[in-house]
Specification:
This protein has 166 residues and is α+β, with helices and mostly antiparallel strands. It is 33% helix and 19% strand. The protein is built from six helices and nine strands, in the order E-E-E-E-H-H-E-E-E-E-E-H-H-H-H.
Length: 166
């Protein structure tokens, strides 16, 4: 069974899975959230902020695009300006990254669709995942495979472009 929260190897076994749901909601926007691996916090959070954290475990990612909180644990919040890298689905940065392992952005996907009517993003990502080249549990701010985000982005771009052509 394929779950959008899993990155699958060529053998069909999940490399990792994010399943633990935080019982709390984001202290800023009240959105329910999922706990991310500590490797994500270690990778994304600025060193100066990490010195104030006793444990990198059990932080959750706030997926609300308009919320300035990226990660939180109970009432401790890590904001957009506390992270080292741009978060592609927070506050519409440019470029807007959707695949952090292989540098796929919304802009790159849209450019391919505009030029060719399709994008190679999913096929390229799937091939690299199959070859064990992804590091989603570290490089993706959500701490999980980006496939569902890439699929959603492609659908949104195609819908937007079809509306613009009418």
């Amino acid at each position: 069974m394929n779950n959008s929260n899993d990155c699958y190897l060529s053998m069909g076994k999940p490399m990792f899975r994010v399943t633990k749901e935080n019982l709390d909601s984001c202290p800023s926007c009240d959105q329910k959230a999922k706990v991310v691996p500590s490797s994500v916090i270690k990778h994304f959070v600025k060193d100066g902020v990490k010195t104030n954290i006793t444990s990198l475990e059990d932080f959750s990612f706030c997926s609300t695009s308009s919320c300035n909180v990226v990660y939180f644990k109970n009432t401790f919040m890590i904001h957009i300006n506390d992270v080292k890298y741009s978060i592609g689905f927070k506050n519409d940065p440019y470029p807007s990254t959707v695949c952090y392992c292989f540098d796929w952005t919304k802009e790159k996907i849209q450019e391919q669709i505009e030029q060719n009517g399709k994008t190679s993003a999913l096929e390229e990502i799937k091939e690299k995942v199959k070859n064990k080249q992804c590091l989603c549990e570290i490089k993706n701010p959500k701490g999980k495979c980006c496939m569902s985000d890439v699929k959603k982005t492609i659908i949104e771009i195609k819908s937007k472009l079809s509306k613009e052509s009418i």
